[in-house]
Amino acid sequence: MQGSKRTLITLLISISLTASPELISLHNQGKIISSTNSKEILVREIETFVVEINGISCEGCANRIKAQFDSKPFVIDSKVYFKNQSAIVSVKSGTYNSNDIETWVKMVDFKYGAKVIQQYIKTVEEE
Ligand SMILES: *[C@@H]1O[C@H](CO)[C@@H](O)[C@H](O)[C@H]1NC(C)=O
């Protein structure tokens, strides 16, 4: 009796331990969106910047620039392309301007030349 109870508790603990890293990683990927505000805001605006970046010399360099974008709190998504030396950065509308984006690239390495060549706002409806 005593033994099986302990086994059950151990099992429950190990289940919760294995489940949480997954939850954390889902959260990091932005798949779980905090539900505290979503009931009030049914529509949100996403601002997208298309950036031309000169001087990306490797795939890893592109990833470092992407990591820099993703570290900003209001960046929703970013992609950096080594192939055509450009990036696409989506942010919560009204939080950043093109100068911010260009500065972030310079902060990774001053050798990069960054220029926002396109900027648009998209409205996304939430469920
Ligand atoms: C670079 O390539 C990607 C994917 O191939 C594309 O989505 C993006 O628009 C391109 N960038 C520019 C500036 O054309």
Topology readout:
Blueprint: H1 2-28, E1 43-54, H2 59-70, E2 75-81, E3 86-92, H3 98-108, E4 113-125
Antiparallel strand pairs: 1-3, 1-4, 2-3
Helix pairs in contact: 2-3
The structure holds 2-acetamido-2-deoxy-beta-D-glucopyranose (NAG).
Keywords: Signal
Domain HMA: 50-92
Signal peptide: 1-21
Give a description of the structure.
- With 127 residues, the protein is α+β, with helices and mostly antiparallel strands.
- The chain has a single domain, classed as Alpha-Beta Plaits.
- It has helices at 2-28, 59-70, 98-108; strands at 43-54, 75-81, 86-92, 113-125.
- Strand 2 and strand 3 form a beta hairpin.
- The longest helix is centred in the first third of the chain and has 27 residues, at 2-28.
- It is flat.
- The mean pLDDT is 83.
- The structure holds 2-acetamido-2-deoxy-beta-D-glucopyranose (NAG).
- 2-acetamido-2-deoxy-beta-D-glucopyranose (NAG) binds next to loops.
Content of β-strand:
25-35%
N- to C-terminal distance: 48 Å
Radius of gyration: 20 Å
Mean pLDDT across all amino acids: 83
Assign an overall shape.
flat
CATH architecture assignment name: 2-Layer Sandwich
| Amount of helix | 25-40%
As an assembly, this protein is single chain
Organism: Funneliformis caledonium
GO molecular function, one term: metal ion binding
Signal peptide: 1-21
Keywords: Signal
In short:
With 127 residues, the chain is α+β, with helices and mostly antiparallel strands. Helices cover 39% and strands 31% of the residues.
Provide keyphrases for this structure.
binds 2-acetamido-2-deoxy-beta-D-glucopyranose, 1906_t:CDS:1, single chain, signal, HMA_dom_sf, metal ion binding, HMA_dom, 127 residues, 39% helix, 3 helices, alpha+beta, 4-stranded antiparallel sheet, Alpha-Beta Plaits, flat
